[in-house]
# Entry
Amino acid sequence: MASAADKDSARKAVTCAEASDTGKRLDSYLAGRFTYHSRTEWQKMISGGKIRLNGAVARSSRKIAGGDRIEYDTAGIVEPEVDGNFQIIFSDEHLIVVSKPGNLPCHPSGPFFKNTLWHMLAGKFGKTYFVNRIDRETSGLVIIARSPRIASEMSESHADIRKKYIAVVHGRFPADCHARGFMCADTASAIRKKRRFYQGPQAGKDDEYSEGIFKFLESKGGLSIVEVELVTGRLHQIRATLSFLGFPLVGDKIYGLDENFYLRFIEGSMTDEDKVKLMIGRQALHSSSLEFTHPVNGEDMLLNADLPEDMKNLINKEG
# Structure
């Protein structure tokens, strides 16, 4: 919900509802916005007085409006389990490059504080500063600076960082695809944070130009392995673009075969049949390669991360 404070006891999670949230129940809003708890779990916290709406306790059924402030003290909240087996690919006095597993958040958010790559690295290296971030369910390479100056310099030259991913998608992908278009909010979806990729003239002033190169590598059964090179780095760009192209990412609960997977996930009502259809416990996306110039010594850096076992198993199962 909000940036984590330096001390666990001082942490408070805060969010403000947007105009598009007007009319939603408080429990439904929280479950859709912050998926680390099911709707039932949010209801228990609301009834226990742990959630404040505009400074006061409220019922789960309370309808919210744009601008409403929702907060709760996260001290004492049990953090969800994560996979902390990250690998340091490169380290010097200026940079750290890590390959993280597919169930580890990069930075504090919601109930995640100690169970984050940021906190784990702080225990080893002291203060660090992320240059790029990937979704909790995406595995692979992340660049971390060891000073604010280096982080700022690399962020300014972010477009010069060449990023490649490996994705496993449903269907037989074409030989290659250079996808140029725009990213915007998917207002037709019931999922608040879902985005949409489209091609054609820019439709809205806040829509972001998006470009990526998608290259077919091989097919396995009903799946394809695709290499993705990002030209731009937009939120959910790979996932939304693959969905638009008709080749959804395997295991993706939002942009995959059916967004109702996600709705049942946040309600805590996913079935065994749902899990079989998803095929893997997280989205099958891996940040496999980073190429950039070292900000201090000017050395050309090319770093790679092997495909994790869960994606290997997924591919081999279809082979």
Notes: Confidence is low (pLDDT under 50) at residues 1-10. Helices lie at 26-33, 39-47, 117-125, 148-156, 237-245, 260-267, 272-278, 309-318. The first strand starts at residue 12 and ends at 16. The radius of gyration is 20 Å.
